[in-house]
Each structure stands twice: as C-alpha cells, then as structure tokens.
Write a structure and sequence with these properties.
The chain is mostly helical. It is built from nine helices and two strands, in the order ααβααααβααα. The protein is globular and about 50 Å long.
Length: 183
C-alpha cells in the first residue's frame, strides 16, 4: 500500500521535498529581508492593525493582521510571503515533474530552484510573490487543459491566480497591458 501511494504521488512528494530542502538551506545560510523599503513599511503598518492600503486586498491584510496576533514576535507578512512562494514554486516543480520524464523534470526543477528560490525565500517583495502565484496558477491551468486533468487542478490554478491578484492587483494591469500590446 505504501509503495502504491509513493508511486501515485511521487511528483508531489519530490516537488515538496526539493522545495523544503531549498527553503531550509536558504533560511539557514542566507539572510531574509525585504527587497524594497515599502514592503517593510506595509508589514509594520499591517501588524499595527492598519488595513486600508490599496496595494493589496483588505482580506489579505486582515488575514495577515490576524496571523500577526497569533505569531506575535515573528513578522507575519514575511511568513505569509515565504509560504506563498513555497506554494508557487512547489506547484511549478510539480508541473515540470508531471510533464517530463523524471530525470529531465528533476533537472528542470533544480534549474528553476537555483534561479528563483533565493529571490522568493530570501529577498522578499509582495509584487514578486504575486507574480509567482499568478505564474504558478496560470501554468497549472494550462497544464490541466493540455493534459485533460480533472476539475480540481483547474480550481487550484484559479485559486492561485486569484490569490496573486488579491495580493497585488496592480501587477495584473501591467501584464494585461503587455498582452494587449502584443496582440
């Protein structure tokens, strides 16, 4: 029974394991900081209970404020961004492992992790987090469409894109403008 479970879920387990490894390594050996000073400013004000900033959804700000009360000495805004980055990178790695044979897919996810993990886990900014969520959700929907997967994959992709848009809606304006310009 355990062999069947591992065989059926090897891509998910591999993607999670690789991301846990990179996250642990980066948290142990790299500093975690905000890329821009406005991220620190927003995190501080959300921790103080100010939820009226237009850079992201009121609900995300409120959720972060509640989380801040639970894990008080730790910066909840930073924890939420790292967690969302973990979800987006794990999703992208899963798609690559499912799309390609294991050896080629594993090589691709190592390249992806080496290129992007430090930026997601160590040099945190809310715009980058929203962009990675949108990319992961878009790739999930595209993969689900091409692979004719069931509705759950579509819903997961839509949730990632929606969460990315709630997190930083203004990034989508520039993406939509660029798509409109290209066509």
């Amino acid at each position: 029974m355990a062999k069947k479970f591992l065989k059926n879920h090897s891509s998910v387990l591999t993607a999670v394991f690789v991301n846990v490894f990179f996250l642990t390594f980066i948290l142990l050996y790299c500093g975690v900081y905000y890329e821009l000073s406005d991220d620190w400013f927003f995190a501080k004000n959300i921790a103080d209970g100010n939820y009226d900033y237009t850079f992201c959804s009121f609900y995300i700000q409120y959720l972060t404020g509640l989380l801040q009360k639970v894990i008080y000495p730790v910066n909840a805004f930073m924890v939420l961004q790292i967690a969302l980055g973990f979800v987006s990178l794990t999703t992208i790695c899963y798609i690559f492992l499912e799309t390609f044979k294991f050896k080629k897919g594993f090589l691709f996810i190592l390249i992806i992790e080496c290129l992007f993990a430090v930026n997601i886990y160590s040099i945190v900014t809310f715009t980058k987090t929203a962009a990675f969520l949108a990319v992961a959700g878009g790739l999930m929907m595209l993969w689900a469409y091409q692979s004719k997967k069931h509705l759950g994959f579509w819903v997961y992709g839509i949730v990632l894109v929606m969460f990315g848009s709630f997190y930083r809606m203004k990034i989508f304006y520039s993406v939509l403008a660029e798509i409109g310009r290209a066509h």
